[in-house]
């Protein structure tokens, strides 16, 4: 299956890829694209985490989703489609959000973590967990026909050097995008992993402009006051107020085989094994 790829990567690097244990945080547009590429590369083990369900509005930009998947958990659909590739990758779906209660246990023991989240606050939690535990984080972000990707190692610079949490109500990003931009950014992220395995650690923030057909490497300096990579305080692991996306809510659901979804005046309640409230976003 990997004969053509071996011509490019060589047997040593391919063996290293077969042995990798990777986390993909988020199984939306970016998460499905990175998951597909990582599976086709032959990554040994991939864990995918997402608590959301597939909606019709996701399908146009999301590699693995079809109309028949609407209402099903994204993480389960992602993993089922990735298994169909038949690359031998061991795949696990976790129906949960990434927050301060689980971020560290999710990243521990992983060789790489892919940030395919859509909330700045969740990214900052994941960034803290990765920097604290010395696990490389590969960030990807998308806005319209522009995107960015960055490789974060424990010494920094990290996402917390230049990102700040969104605290105002309704700060949810609802900027659209297209599948072309998603795929460009996911490709950059996965290529960064391959390069890092060769010992070529990517430096800076890579900014891709699909419309202008350009790729730029922006120099990002380590912030000497960064509470993650400089001061090692990791304040987002102590919790962060979130007004957007999915949050964990207390609710005792019945024993559920399928996700249980109810619409409330301010969002959706989604229950699998746990319950989550989806705020500020259709
Ligand atoms: Zn930092």
From TrEMBL:
Boundaries of every THIF-type NAD/FAD binding fold domain copy: 3-227
Gene3D superfamilies, A to Z: NAD(P)-binding Rossmann-like Domain
Gene Ontology molecular functions: nucleotidyltransferase activity; thiosulfate-cyanide sulfurtransferase activity; ubiquitin-like modifier activating enzyme activity
CDD domains named in the record: ThiF_MoeB_HesA_family
GO cellular component: cytoplasm
Protein name: UBA/THIF-type NAD/FAD binding protein
UniProt organism field: Metallosphaera cuprina (strain Ar-4)
């Amino acid at each position: 299956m990997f004969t053509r790829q071996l011509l490019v990567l060589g047997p040593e690097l391919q063996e290293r890829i077969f042995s990798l244990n990777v986390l993909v945080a988020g199984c939306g547009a970016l998460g499905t694209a990175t998951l597909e590429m990582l599976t086709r590369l032959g990554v040994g083990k991939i864990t995918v985490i997402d608590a959301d369900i597939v909606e019709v509005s996701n399908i146009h930009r999301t590699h693995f989703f079809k109309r028949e998947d609407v209402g099903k958990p994204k993480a389960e659909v992602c993993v089922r489609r990735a298994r169909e590739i038949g690359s031998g990758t061991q795949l696990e779906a976790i129906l949960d959000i990434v927050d301060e209660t689980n971020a560290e246990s999710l990243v521990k023991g992983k060789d790489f973590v892919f940030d395919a989240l859509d909330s700045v606050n969740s990214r900052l939690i994941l960034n803290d967990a990765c920097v604290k535990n010395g696990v490389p984080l590969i960030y990807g972000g998308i806005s319209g026909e522009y995107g960015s990707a960055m490789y974060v190692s424990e010494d920094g610079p990290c996402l917390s050097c230049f990102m700040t949490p969104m605290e105002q109500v309704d700060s949810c990003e609802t900027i659209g995008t297209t599948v072309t931009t998603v795929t460009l950014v996911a490709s950059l992220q996965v290529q960064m992993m391959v390069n890092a395995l060769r010992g070529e650690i990517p430096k800076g923030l890579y900014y891709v402009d699909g419309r202008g057909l350009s790729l730029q490497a922006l120099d990002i300096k380590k912030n000497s006051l960064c509470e993650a990579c400089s001061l090692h305080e990791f304040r987002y692991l102590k919790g962060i107020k979130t007004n957007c996306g999915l949050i964990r809510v207390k609710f005792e659901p019945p024993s559920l085989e399928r996700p249980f979804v109810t619409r409330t005046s301010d969002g959706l309640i989604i229950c699998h094994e746990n319950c989550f409230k989806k705020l500020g976003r259709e």
